[in-house]
Amino acid sequence: MLTDLLLAIAHFLLIFALLAILVTEMVTIRPSMTRNQLFYVARLDIAYGIIAGLILVVGFGRVFFGIKGAGFYLPNPIFWAKIAAFLIVGLLSIPPTMKIIRWRIAAEGDAGYVPPADEVRAVRRFMHAESMVFFTIPIFAALMARGYGL
Fold first, then answer.
1. Helix boundaries (H) for 29-116
2. CA neighbor of 127 nearest in space, from 13, 24, 39, 50
3. What percent of the chain is modeled with pLDDT above 70?
4. How many other C-beta atoms can be found within 10 angstroms of the C-beta atom of residue 49?
5. Which of 8, 51, 107, 110 has the fewest Cβ atoms surrounding its Cβ within 10 A?
6. Which of 48, 87, 80 is nearest to 63 (CA)?
7. How far apart are the C-alpha atoms of 33 and 42, rounded to whole Å?
């Protein structure tokens, strides 16, 4: 029972941390961002990827070592919808990550580098789409917790 509790706490804290990083990136990425802000966003994006990976590890830890067990989760289509939403968030995060990496490399070589405004807008669009899909995940979790999909 303690294992289930610790996994649940870790899972929720990681999810909140992921959301906080996504929001911080969205607020920081602007056409007027400075070189220091760009490097800050690059570090945030690395943390975002690490936390997303930890969410998967801890989440599947809950599936296989939690009280409800794999028999509750794996046959449930709502669980798979939640996993699909998480994967879509991950896929939507790839183009912004690639741009942020390119921007960081360019800024390392040119102290006056400013990301092109059209690229900044595109990255922000992807991040907004990410956040919209992200907010479906707790809906699926709430449905699952109440037995929907079984």
1. 35-65, 70-73, 77-109
2. 24
3. 100
4. 15
5. 110
6. 80
7. 12
Q: Residue 148 carries which DSSP code? A: T
Q: How far is CA 23 from the centre of its chain?
A: 10
Contacts 24+ apart (CB under 8 A), 102-108: 103/38, 103/42, 104/38, 104/39, 104/42, 107/35, 107/38, 107/39
Condensed to tens digits (0 to 9), the pLDDT of residues 24-48 reads: 999 999 998 999 999 999 999 999 9
Those residues with Cβ within 8 angstroms of residue 127's Cβ, 6 or more apart along the chain or in another chain: 22, 25, 26, 29, 92, 96
* 3-class DSSP assignment, residue 150: coil
The CA distance from 29 to 115, in Å, is 10
For tokens 């941390």, name the residue: 17
* 13: Cβ contacts below 8 Å, ≥ 6 apart: none
Cα separation, 124 vs 122, in Å, equals 5
